[in-house]
Specification:
The complex is a heterodimer.
Chain A (H helix, E strand, L loop, with lengths): L10 H4 L6 H20 L2 H26 L7 H19 L3 H23 L4 H21 L2 H4 L5 E2 L3 E3 L2 E3 L2 H24 L1 H11 L1 H6 L4 H27 L1 E2 L6 H14 L4 H28 L5 H22 L4 H14 L5
Chain B lengths: L5 E10 L2 E11 L4 E5 L6 H9 L6 E6 L2 E2 L5 H6 L2 E4 L11 H8 L8 H6 L2 H20 L15 H14 L4 E5 L7 H18 L3 E4 L3 H7 L2 E6 L2 E6 L1 H6 L1 H8 L1
Chain lengths: 350, 253
């Protein structure tokens, strides 16, 4: 809902994402702060932000596939892995620039995702979830069992640093800008997709696939497209991951990671790009707090042993996610929207 | 003479041992409002479902403007100019009225995913053009005041109107309506009847209406087809149908 006094005067204005001057100012401030962040914050925080931006790209892709098109996807980490491996192999064997390896990583992941999207034409819900889990296992199986000269097998692949105009993107700060630029493009693109005819077709298929068909929407193709786009995002995120860690191994892309991506979009709010970003922020912060506090607790209560403390920490993380679903099943974004419309109409009840 | 907007030829549909449609043929002419009536279980909705591609008839053909569409997917038939509204509604409840109608424009829009990703100029122009068409329909159906309300929060009568608007947004060459008046009060019925007549008069879209409310059917229809046990038992103008002994027998038993 727009605040009072804001009336779009053209159809173009009515579909803007940034609708008020304050939102524009806030967005500009946020981007400015992000650009200045490497000079303001410590290396540790920059490292966390790098991780968040990569997760954001992947979670936004999952949001399009699951949140908008309603196709449950527990294979997002496998799609990310396909992207990471594609980028690593291309970079280490052919020396292609990252300007090409990142989109190619996205495309190869998209192709892999598309195959699973085709199954979505015939099965729904729980069965689809199981099928996408198969993506995880196929990915692991392929990497570990194909000749290790292809994909490094269990040894993984070392990735050469990204390079642009002879400048090597090494270190958290340089990588921060690379990740930020890519994340910015991908998130802006996601806003474009969800506001286009494709976004509307996704929502139509999610809400009522019988009616979507009679609207002239090819339901099977739309579902497959949703997987394709979601996996493209995962592939791009995977490529960024490969350049950040400079090493890819198969155990970086497990079902566990996939479930965390799903948790991010649920906590943030299904069917909202901003919701996915909020979810990434919240979950990554909690993970980071646990990683920081955990060792301290393990030290102070050493009789428990480190293992139990770390297991307990994961239980707490799971508990936080479960609690947020019980309190606000529609996600934090929904809560924020309620808050926003109530202060915009204040002091009237509606 | 050009081919009829819609022709069903000798359609037979069986579910196991039950014959839902038995050698049914109907033809809808240009600018015509054809009503299909019949007792419960006569096969009216089956006929619509065969026409729209939800069921595939065991025998017979469906033609849209002379083009054979039998056995095509629902969305392919929709793209060839057939729109339908549902008994009850199949709206996208969480979406606003404008968004619902814009979904109806989906198949008329041409931009691809890459253009959508970057929001190039053509995408913006296309969105604005189609939004204008959607607004024109909103204007026609007099639902301006609720255009940005989620459809799920609207009353039944308004929802039916949005359903009609979404079908009109497809710019169909034929419109099928499955019991549009069911569950409405008389005021809502009058409103919707006026809009259905307007669709035919102003937009020149032939309409096939399946309806139980005889008053509505007799007032609106140009021609009536009566089904009973999956067979066409009578066909003619409202006056002829009212006097037809076979129809009276089917209804009164």
């Amino acid at each position: 809902m727009d605040p009072s006094g804001i009336f779009p005067t053209s159809y173009r204005a009515d579909r803007r994402v940034v609708r008020t001057r304050w939102q524009a100012i806030a967005l500009a401030l946020f981007i400015g702060l992000m650009l200045a962040a490497p000079y303001l914050a410590s290396g540790r925080i920059i490292a966390v932000m790098n991780m968040m931006m990569i997760s954001a790209v992947i979670a936004v892709g999952l949001q399009i596939c699951t949140g908008y098109a309603g196709q449950i996807n527990l294979g997002q980490a496998a799609f990310m892995g396909v992207g990471a491996y594609t980028a690593s192999i291309l970079a280490s064997k052919t020396g292609l620039t990252f300007l090409l390896t990142i989109p190619l990583a996205g495309l190869s992941a998209a192709l892999f995702g598309f195959l699973f999207g085709l199954t979505a034409a015939r099965i729904k819900g729980f069965y689809l979830a199981l099928t996408t889990i198969a993506a995880q296992f196929i990915f692991h199986f392929a990497v570990l069992n194909l000749p290790s000269s292809w994909m490094g097998g269990s040894n993984g692949i070392t990735v050469p640093p990204a390079e642009i105009f002879g400048f090597r993107i090494i270190g958290e700060t340089a990588q921060f800008y690379m990740n930020f630029a890519v994340a910015l493009i991908m998130i802006a693109g996601a806003f474009g997709i969800v506001r286009s005819r494709f976004g509307r077709a996704f929502v139509a298929v999610r809400d009522d696939d019988v009616a979507a068909g009679i609207m002239g929407i090819n339901v099977a193709a739309t579902k497959a497209n949703a997987f394709l786009i979601g996996a493209f995002y995962a592939g791009v995120g995977g490529a960024l991951w490969a350049y950040l860690i400079r090493f890819v191994g198969v155990d970086q892309f497990t079902l566990f990671n996939s479930i965390f991506f799903v948790a991010m979009i649920i906590v943030g709010g299904m069917g909202s790009i901003v919701g996915a970003l909020i979810g990434v922020f919240v979950i990554r912060i909690i993970q980071e707090i646990i990683a920081t506090v955990g060792p301290n607790i393990a030290e102070s209560v050493s009789f428990l042993g480190g293992d139990i403390v770390f297991a307990g920490m994961n239980v707490i993380l799971g508990g936080v996610i479960a609690l947020s679903m019980i309190v606000e099943p529609k996600g934090l974004m929904h809560r924020w929207n309620i808050l926003k419309s109530s202060y915009r109409i204040w002091p009237f009840p509606y | 003479m050009t081919a009829a907007p819609l022709a069903v030829r000798n359609a037979t549909l069986k579910f196991g041992g039950v014959t839902a449609l038995d050698d049914v043929s109907i033809t809808v002419n240009d600018d015509e409002l054809l009503a299909i009536i019949g007792p419960n279980g006569a096969g009216k909705t089956s006929l619509l479902n065969v026409t729209a591609g939800f069921y595939r008839p065991q025998m017979g053909r469906v033609e849209l403007s002379g083009q054979d569409v039998t056995g095509l997917r629902v969305d392919q038939i929709a793209r060839r100019g057939l729109a339908r509204t549902f008994q009850g509604t199949h709206l996208f409840a969480g979406q606003t009225v404008v968004e619902n109608i814009m979904i109806g424009r989906h198949m008329l829009m041409k931009s691809n995913v890459i253009q959508a990703f970057f929001q190039f100029g053509p995408v913006m122009r296309e969105e604005s053009e189609h939004r204008e068409a959607a607004e024109e329909i909103i204007d026609f159906l007099e639902i301006e005041a609720i255009r940005s309300r989620p459809v799920g929060t609207l009353g039944y009568g308004l929802r039916k109107r949005v359903d009609l608007g979404r079908a009109l947004a497809q710019e169909p060459s034929i419109l099928l309506m499955d019991e549009p008046m069911a569950g409405m009060n008389s005021e809502e019925k009058e409103d919707l009847a006026r809009f259905i007549l307007d669709v035919r008069e102003a937009r020149k879209i032939p309409v096939v209406l399946v309806e139980h409310d005889m008053g509505v059917v007799m007032d609106l229809a140009d021609r009536i087809v009566v089904l009973d046990f999956g067979r066409v038992i009578a066909e003619g103008t409202p006056e002829e149908i009212q006097k037809n002994p076979a129809v009276i027998k089917a209804y009164l038993g």
